[in-house]
Amino acid sequence: MILRRLLFTALLGCAFSSGLEAQEEPRPNPLVHWGKWGTAGLSLGLHLLAITAHNRSDRTFRTLTSNCFDTPDSCTIGSDGTYVDSHTEAMFQSVLSDNRKARAYLISGEVVLLGTVVLFVSDLARKKARPPNKPFNPEIAPGPNGSTHVGFRLEF
């Protein structure tokens, strides 16, 4: 009776057991495997937005400085530290706003890029299945004057 229970338990354990962790082929984490490309694209997009905001700010600032050289009266600064001319002040505030946007996009893009690097490294560091064993069998043949010829053959 005890032998039957032991045999039944052993058979039941074999039937429902899975392979050991070392015997199973590792599967890549899809979040890491595909997420690294998503974060790389997001980082690229944020950097492009930073470039666009910076260029817009730079164009507006060049327009502002050329207006100040052309009509110096429009660039008079009042007692409160702002431009007296409302159009000039609006251009200056636009420059400041675009600079803040460019800085935020750039910092965000760099943070996402750091996350992308972490995902790439973690994907590279994970266990991978061993490649199939393809032994190398060189062809060795005696040559003239006691020399040896070594070669290999590629089969397709």
Brief descriptors of the model:
156 residues, two-stranded antiparallel sheet, mainly alpha, elongated
Write up what this structure looks like.
The protein has 156 residues and is mainly alpha-helical. Helices cover 62% and strands 5% of the residues. A two-stranded antiparallel sheet has the order 1-2. The longest helix is centred in the first third of the chain and has 41 residues. The chain is elongated and about 95 Å long. The model has no long low-confidence stretch (mean pLDDT 82).
Total count of helical runs of at least 4 residues? 3
The parts where pLDDT drops under 50 for at least 5 residues are none
Shape: elongated
Mean pLDDT: 82
Major sheet characteristics: 2 strands, antiparallel
Order of helices and strands: HHHEE
Please bin the fraction of helical residues.
55-70%
Cα-atom Rg, whole angstroms? 35 Å
* Beta-strand percentage range: 5-15%
Total strands: the figure is 2
Q: Give the neighbour order of strands across the main sheet.
A: 1-2
Distance between the termini: 61 Å
The structural class is: mainly alpha
Summarize the structure.
The chain is mostly helical and 156 residues long. It is built from three helices and two strands; from the N terminus they run αααββ.
